[in-house]
Amino acid sequence: MTLLATLDPADADLTACLARVMAAVLKPGDVIALEGAVGAGKTHFARAFIRARQGDLAEDVPSPTFTLVQTYADPLGTEIWHADLYRLTHPDEMAELGLDQAMQDSIVLIEWPDHGGELPDPLTIGLEPIAEFPDLRRITLAGSEAHWGLMTRLPAIARLIHRAGWADARLVPLAGDASSRRYFRLLDGDRSAVLMDAAPGTTGPYVAMTQWLRGRGLHAPEILATDQVEGLLLLEDLGDDLIARVLEGEPALARRIYDRMTDLLVELHGHAPPEFVLRLNGAELARQAGLFAEYYPPAAGAPGKGAAVSAVIQELHKELAEDIAPVLGLRDFHAENLIWRDDAPLGILDFQDAVAVHPAYDLVSGLQDARRDVDPQVEAAQIDRYIAARGLDPDRFRAAYALLGAQRNLRIMGIFTRLAQLEGKRRYLAFMPRVWALIQRDLAHPALAPLAAALEGVPAPTPQVIERIAAA
């Protein structure tokens, strides 16, 4: 058993806050061993944990000192067992109480675990009162790193939430993205916030871009509290109305929504990009497109094909796209990262990787969406809308749009292949046929004939090819 993390000192509120954070991440089969003297706060911790799991259905959580075991259901369909083994006379009684089976398919919280014998890979939470400060305690988390390694983040999360005035909030996991970041919604009465849990020391770009965007009247989420050393940000909650969901529920809004997306880009591109962002020039675009040749053709059974793609993209960028000043590109500008707020400005998410790039780049990102079909007539109308708003040369812009569309989508094909093969994230493979079709549309532009030639012999992502990639 390894010491994973320490929370010291912790008052009753911070102790309960840690329990609520832990309630957001535990799953069936997890066993928590609560160690500490009488009055150390074991039941206080368990009560906060159980009530957080139950949310609006929270019930009274009495101490199981006399009943030995209490069971609870939560809205996620998980059963929670809360046991107090102080009066247990022999470890064999664990089976009589049903705890052996419960530890396989339920979340089990055990006070006085030493009375029950050896437990299957528990997370041990030690609560030790501080002698000179009886209202404070030192909390330790210990367990196997293989199973419980992610628990090292929880004390820092609890400290931030507690310090920011959200100690009573319940945490609910939100869907993640292709990165390693995690997100949680904090619910406290009629207010809510979002916690971003990123790798330690990696939130600087997000904070810098948030300040830049908000300083120009664009609605990135307000930062409510930070622990940048730990990679934690507490953010304004912009709600659940992702444009992707709004379009799915109300497809008739598509033209209005895409008009607003294009207008947002026109507004954004009216500002010179900040100096601190990456310059996504021809050389960098070519380098990133190299992900395609590195991963997709070999996985699809055509090693060596597409090897010239990067060099051709760099040459075409010089020819088609270097006559116009770069603008700020949010890079992941699409329906999954924009919040519909009716007549209020669109909410913007996931912009920490912003770049200085040709103005067609984010327009491509929004209109050639890997995750959903966009009506080609809507795409054409938005290209026209952007060209008119910025007074650009239509032929030059459309050629650059096709090039950046092909570059971006080829890179996506490489990323999806890499995610499937190296990280086991195979769900993205389902998007490959759509992305490939977008590439073919872009390659149809006469200016991209050299790139079409460089892709000869690369197989399309047929069901057989996708199956081959998934099996590798």
Polypeptide structure, described:
- With 472 residues, the protein is α+β, with helices and mostly antiparallel strands.
- It has three domains: 2-165, P-loop containing nucleotide triphosphate hydrolases (Rossmann fold); 172-236, Phosphorylase Kinase, domain 1, CATH 3.30.200.20; 243-471, Aminoglycoside phosphotransferase (APH), C-terminal lobe (Aminoglycoside 3'-phosphotransferase, Chain: A, domain 2, Alpha-Beta Complex).
- Helices cover 41% and strands 19% of the residues.
- The protein contains 17 helices and 17 strands.
- The protein has helices spanning 12-23, 42-54, 93-96, 99-105, 145-148, 154-163, 204-214, 243-249, 254-268, 282-299, 309-320, 360-367, 376-390, 394-423, 432-443, 449-454, 463-471, and strands spanning 2-10, 31-35, 69-73, 79-84, 107-111, 123-130, 133-143, 170-174, 182-188, 191-197, 223-227, 232-236, 278-279, 327-329, 338-339, 347-348, 355-357.
- Strands 1-7-6-2-5-4-3 form a seven-stranded mixed beta sheet, with helices on both faces. A five-stranded antiparallel beta sheet has the order 8-9-10-12-11. A three-stranded mixed beta sheet has the order 13-17-14, covered by helices on one side.
- α1 (12-23) crosses α6.
